[in-house]
User: What shape does this take?
Amino acid sequence: MTNPFAKPWIWSWVAAALAFALTLGLTSGRGAGELAYAALSFGAFAAIVGLGQMLVITLGPGNVDLSIPATMTLSATLALKAMGSDEGTALLGLVVALGAGLGAGLANYALIFLLRLPPIIATLAASLVYQSFAIWSNRGLRIKPPEGLADFATGRFLGLPNVAWVGLALAIVVWVVLERSVWGRWLLATGQQMRVARLAGVPVELVRASTYVTVAVFAALSGYLLASFSGGAALNMGTEYLLMSIAVVVIGGTSIAGGYSNVPGVWGAALFMFLVVSMLNSYGAGAGVRNVLTGAIIIAIVIAASTKKRGRA
Amino acid sequence: MTDHESAPIVALTEAAKHFGPVRALDGVSLSVAPGDCIGLVGHNGAGKSTLVNLVNGGLAPSSGEIRFDTGGTALGAGVRSVFQELSLCPNLTVAENLRISHSALKGPGWRRPARAEIRQSLDTVFPDHGIDPDAEVDTLSIAERQMVEIAIGFAPRGTEARLVILDEPTSSLDAGIAEQLLAHVRRFCAGGGAVIFISHMLGEIFDVATRIVVLKDGKVVAERPADGFTRQGLVDAMGHVTAEEGETSETARSFGAEIVRSPEGLSAREGEVVGLSGLAGHGQAAALARLYLSRTSSWHARKAPEVVFVAGDRTRDGILPLWSILRNVSISILQQGARWGLVDRAAEEATAAEWKKRIGIRTDDVTNPILSLSGGNQQKVLFARALASSAPVIIMDDPMRGVDVGTKQDVYAMIRAEAARGRTFLWYSTETEEVCQCDRVFVFRNHEISAELTGADITEERILEASFEMQEAS
Amino acid sequence: ESHMAETSDKRIALSNNYAGNSWRQAMLQTFEETAEEAVANGVVAAADAYTTSENQATEQAAQIQNMILQGYDAIVLNAASPTALNGAVKEACDAGLTVVSFDGIVTEPCAWRIAVDFAAMGREEVDYLASRLPEGGNLLEIRGLAGVFVDDEISKGIHAGVEEHDQFEIVGSVHGDWAQDVAQKAVAGILPSLPEVVGVVTQGGDGYGAAQAFEAAGRDTPLIVLGNRQDELQWWAEQRDENGYETLSLSIAPGVASLAFWVAQQVLAGEDVPKDLTVPFLKITQDTLDAALESTPEGSVANVVYTLEDAQEVIAEAK
Amino acid sequence: MSLLARYRIILPAVSLAVLLAATFWMQPRAMSYFGLNLLFNLAVPIALATIAQMMIIMVNDIDLSVGAFVSLVACITATFLNDAPVLGLAMLLALIVTYAVMGAVIHALDLPAIVVTLGMSFVWGGIALFILPSPGGSSPGWLRTLMTVKPPLAPMAVVASVVIAVVTHFLVIRSGLGTVLRGVGGNARSVQRAGWPVIRLKALAYGLAGLFGVLAGMALVGLTTSADANIALRYTLLSIAGVILGGGEFTGGKVSPTGAVIGALTLTLASSFLSFLRLSPDWQIGAQGAILILVLTARLVFRQKRAEA
Ligand SMILES: Nc1ncnc2c1ncn2[C@@H]1O[C@H](COP(=O)(O)OP(=O)(O)OP(=O)(O)O)[C@@H](O)[C@H]1O
Ligand SMILES: Nc1ncnc2c1ncn2[C@@H]1O[C@H](COP(=O)(O)OP(=O)(O)OP(=O)(O)O)[C@@H](O)[C@H]1O
Ligand SMILES: [Mg+2]
Ligand SMILES: [Mg+2]
Assistant: This one.
């Protein structure tokens, strides 16, 4: 089984590479570095929320976090307000952001566990509340991040964007946790069949709680970095990450039925989602064409991935 | 007796089915004529379910031929199947489930005849079943579901049933209900119907079968009229080296301190094998599940668990379907040997390899997917999962469902050996024979313990008595 | 004044479809301040603001219907769609309510419209570029949210302007959804495939993001037309102090909500008010930059609060 | 078996009744023919979209493209159906067929429906932008008349909701084919074994979803008189919430059409109720979330009863 096309994650990378090549075809190769750099920068935010969403989706059917955009906005808003553009407060801001994420994750899980709400509805409803909190906390005013933090978020190290390093590091951690750790096995077991996992001695509620907290903390981190990167938090800053977080997970080859995750696919899909829009924009496609083609490509990737999977079985 | 002169309903010639390298069925010839009741036996993974699926058209043969007397499909020939895995739609009512397999029920007002038909069929096969045709299936107990499935199998459904295939139909039925089914099968065959009856309970086979077919590793190794076999002969034909019998009359063992006591009165001591009995669906499984859930937490897991669970309803309670055999075995013992939260993969592999050997899981590689195993071998994986842990208490919820005779003997021996080393077993079984091997038995009736039997009191009569008492009184 | 007394028992509601950016927040704040003062002075009995949870016409239509039920006398409306609310607006008119739409206006004839000529705004951007860059060059267009009326109008204006000044060519067009971070991302994605860009035409709220994307790509900052956000103005001022950067910023002032409030009050007071009114957009030039920066709270949008007198003036002009 | 578990419709119905009573108490004006129509007429397209979503959930899938699809239908209705009825009708039929084909493909290739429909939502949205790059179009006259008709006794919104509930109840719960379709959600394998062509059943379920999606888009245009490409995007989440609120479950073919309609009405009413509360604008959005949680919390009682059963 060394056929690389048998891996479900390969397709998102193939698609990303194609989009990259097609874009550069327009300029006969000029700007490759720039484009790759931009893809890594912006892909990082999608990858970070995507990794969190992936863990949740792995928990099985019906598990998804729709509060990611609101959590990003809320934590970024609170963090930037706490920092108030003062130098040397970056760490304080990070703590505030992650704290907000932790709170949101716990609240989401409390709704799911205590009130037995389906996660889709619970996180959707909770996200409206978080949005209100964000509005209330500073009425949508954009506060600039401290300069040092902004420099870090937009800076690079060894030629790669710093945010991409953060995203890569998280991906590696998540990969190790899923592939090698006890908790990862527990998560995968819970995702296949919660009742079975419980009867096999898996602490399923601990797994679920920690997963919902993790996704919210990842969203908070992503929000914090995004706000630092783009010069401040805005009330609508997370909006596009709702569909994005789900899309990168499923395009990346994670099973929507639960119990099977795919870390490399998330990064591939995150790069793809950025590159495909860049490609279509570069070719001058209008919003209509862009949407139709994006949709068609997503479906094509899913079909390709599933056909190969069946061929192997 | 069988009328071999009449044309067979279905005839297989050299039928074979391969799953990749696995030869699940390896050239089987068999014909079933009206009035036949064929008892199909064989070890776990012998190919029985595969044979059934070829006959009913669920699988296409890799080679060979399957011919029906009507010349058409299995459905057209009046072939009905009751599958090893429950296969009703749990969200529909009993009557609606009949509708699924009875496409002639059409038009407005189909519900009334559907209700009448399924009630009629249930009444015929299982008198006093007490099942409401308007009940949703997922509100029924597993035994009731099995009864409904059997009743649907025998229901007229427009065309009469001519050949009914029953794949381990009694595995979740208690003795009384199973006896009703056997009686019905005999009536059905006497009336000119044909049945293929698969079971690991040889008593049942001898009870109903007119002819017995023994499968071994995908081949028919013996086929004779039922009276041509003795029990031992049958076991030998199946080719399993059975453990020595006769350990039943062992001297009274001494037990340790009490280690389990539940609010409803279940108790067990160290080293004791405690049986739970009574009619199916009277709260035994629920009591065990409650006990397990109260002794474990969904919030934290201990390195060495206090109790482990062996599920009988595999798909609902036991199998992690996406995983390999290896990961299915190791899930309960991951924390042993884990460092910094990381799984010790070498130890994990060693454990799986050891248990594959000890309990005889029929596979060439433990990294194969669990779903490539036959039903009984999946069950062995669940045993391995529990026994591999160091838990002092093992809870078993009718764990022998679908396990073949030979393996059962091995597992009994293993249970006794573990008990001798001080582990405690709480064992619910629908087979009185198994319960009778226990050191102490609790009989359940209406979700309460109606009797606690020990020592010489543990007899089939006493258990039956305690199971029914209330019903006679009322 | 006599007009005041006649509306002292009237109740006005603001129907708003979106609260998710600083412009809308400034708008809500201005309305609230205006309304509070008006209620305190006994000009009207109540003036309440309502926002839908999603930026959707269907939800806003329901909101308008609720306002009818609640017995408001007038609705001040910033609409999610110029046409999709017509059914609800008609119902309100039929029930005797006064509907004054602003910013996002509705086409239903029974409603009043306080419109900004968005197409003119787009044209003006290109005119300005032509005055600064007479030799022309390549332009990048940043659009708003696809399928929304304002986006289409401004874009039309821009394209009309480019047609007029044919020394310019639009070499790329992306949707920035009127959000800083989305614009930044879209621009970063298209930049590598673009030739040299001399100017960026925007719709407001996305100029800063574009500037950041240019900087990150290591390109020279082109002439970016800005949209009155404080962070954009701040950036402009910094650039100006550093290298004499010069540009134009224009957008509609969030305070137009207060204008709409006063127009509604005038209609309720029985004044004869023409159905179509226009407000000029708020333009900030190199000369007014410092003043604008000073009066704009950090992170907000440059604003103008309109008074009753302003409203009367706008009405008189339209007659 | 408890009453609640047996009739999963009771709980949604009670929630709606309580909310309605609270609304009447807050705003007595709503307690009239006119008031009820205003409260509920926009719930009609939502109810239809919820039924569409329910058809998909019924066969164990989930449809993330309902909102975009209804928007597209609205765009077609407000343009082609108005200007060239035959062409418009043909386009709408083609959409229904496309939905059915989508169902068949999802089944045949064993694709995750959530991803395919996510992709399709982009496709529908893109086509809608082609048709209406900026808002506009207008409702066919007959449609406008139909949606603003004033029947005797009860207002259009109430009559329409009842009709939708009754028709879909017979279609999904009572009819034989509906039973088989729910069976696909419960246990597709056993339906297959019984000799049903599951691929066609799936196509049928999706086709029905397409049909109700088309009806939703048309009803919406009849009410709003015109369309835009984003007009119904939020129907995706609303319809999912409606199905769940109405006692449906994500898996296992457990759905209730009557419940779905009630769920849609409840969601609509909930936001009206909030605006009657006159909260501070900061908290209006959050309150929508809070009330959703509140209404759904009632399910807790129901669940506990079921667990005991
Ligand atoms: N889908 C499949 N893929 C691969 N192997 C399979 C598959 N189905 C069955 N097998 C293999 O075919 C063989 C026969 O299986 P089958 O289910 O017919 O056994 P069985 O006699 O019914 O056993 P049991 O008594 O345990 O139910 C087994 O070795 C099994 O592992
Ligand atoms: N055998 C029965 N046991 C319990 N309840 C029954 C039975 N038969 C009918 N009912 C009840 O009587 C009522 C009327 O019967 P129903 O209309 O369902 O039958 P039907 O005419 O066969 O159905 P339909 O014509 O609508 O398909 C229902 O509420 C049903 O629950
Ligand atoms: Mg079998
Ligand atoms: Mg058995």
